[in-house]
Amino acid sequence: MPMNTDRIQTSHVGSLPRTPELLAANERFQAGEIDLAGLGAALDAGVADIVRTQREIGIDIVNDGEYGHTTSGAVDYGAWWNYSFHRLGGLTPTDEDRWQTAEKRRSSPGNVVLTSFPDRRDRERFREAYEDPTAGVLAHRASVPQPKITGPLTYTGQDAVAGDIRRVKDAMAATGATQGFLAALSPGSCARVRNEYYATDEELLYACADAMREEYTAIVDAGLIVQIDDPSIAESWDQVNPEPTVEDYLDFTRLRVAALNHALRGLPEEQIRFHLCWGSWHGPHTTDLELKHLVELMLTITAQGYSFEASSPRHGHEWKVWRDHPLPEGKVLYPGMVSHSTNGVEHPELVADRIEQYASVVGRENVIASTDCGLGGRLHPQIALAKLGSLVEGARLASERLF
């Protein structure tokens, strides 16, 4: 994960729009007509195409578009998490979709009460908007049931992650890309399914850590960067109802960070980057926890790079946080310079301004321009690719001014 030497490098968070052929194959998979192996041909062609597209746009650090993470359709806010259901043993399928089913459960430490999506505090505050299908707050999505944990968690995705690695490395070789990454689920997010086996949160989290470590290790051993997807660090704040104290929430979160660091032990930091966000849905997000409360804890995660929302309307001002929280030496930031939550395509000058703001507080060598979150499943393909183009052009403009 080299730092910038003569220009601002670019990347993105992972998910990119799927091809029509891959969406059709995923639909057949969801219907039980084909298995994971049956997705192979569509994945081979799709990954080759999306890596070539990234390189043609000018993205420096590329990935497979998360094509190997099964999706329920063109709109899917949860593929980053749902893919793990097909790579873990110890799960039993259910017909419950946590986006639609209300539930509450007490978690520890911090003695917080987690609710499901319908009971989130942002949704309570804007109930009419969330329930209006024409408002654009929640786009139409297929219902995706989540399993429950009924036995010891094990990792069963060896063939799947090997396929992800092979496809992205083949595509990188074909296009001359020298830096690549693959996304993988964090223990804290893995543990959000219903648990009927482990006695405590700690047991559950460390079981998730031991299972998912196999995926992290495979990606790193292949010479790629592993991106740890962990919206739960920030997003769960809105899922705690009633609102907790910040300290109680941080106690709750520290255990999740400890489990992640356990999973990452011994792996090279320069091949690890961590992604934090406040959720993919296009809601008001007025109950997001501010970055200033999370930044020090985030920096204790064993990673060289940290990716987070930096251009959304709720978080675009938070570059100032880094004035009071110096970036440790050798670390790199991947702030989002374009957003997944709006159809407006950011002007390259705005992108350049945002890059320069971060460079002014953490140094030009430590800012890799990225996206707020994955663009696939959240934006129309034309808009998503236009945003990547604006990101690259903005980075070029900023580079002319900073180097």
Q: Could you characterize the architecture of this molecule?
A:
The radius of gyration is 20 Å and the shape is globular. It is of the alpha/beta class and 403 residues long. The strands form 3 sheets. A 7-stranded parallel beta sheet has the order 1-6-8-9-10-11-12. Strands 2-5-7 form a 3-stranded mixed beta sheet. The model has no long low-confidence stretch (mean pLDDT 94). The chain has one domain: TIM Barrel, CATH 3.20.20. The chain starts with 19 loop residues before the first helix and ends with a helix. 39% of the residues lie in helices and 14% in strands. The chain is built from 14 helices and 12 strands. It has helices at residues 20-30, 40-57, 79-82, 121-125, 127-131, 158-175, 187-190, 201-221, 232-239, 246-264, 295-298, 321-324, 348-362, 381-402, and strands at residues 61-62, 88-92, 104-107, 112-115, 148-155, 179-185, 194-195, 225-229, 272-276, 305-308, 332-338, 370-371.
Strand order, largest beta sheet: 1-6-8-9-10-11-12
Q: Compute the number of structural domains.
A: 1
Q: Classify the secondary structure makeup into a structural class.
A: alpha/beta
Helix proportion: 25-40%
Number of strands: 12
- Spans of at least 5 consecutive residues whose pLDDT stays below 50 are none
CATH architectural name: Alpha-Beta Barrel
Shape: globular
Can you identify the CATH class?
Answer: Alpha Beta
For the record, give the distance between the C-alpha atoms at the N and C termini, rounded to a whole number.
Answer: 19 Å
**CATH topology type:** TIM Barrel
Q: Taking Cα atoms only, what radius of gyration do you get, to the nearest Å?
A: 20 Å
If helices are DSSP runs of H or I spanning 4 or more residues, what is the number of helices?
14
Average pLDDT, to the nearest integer?
Answer: 94
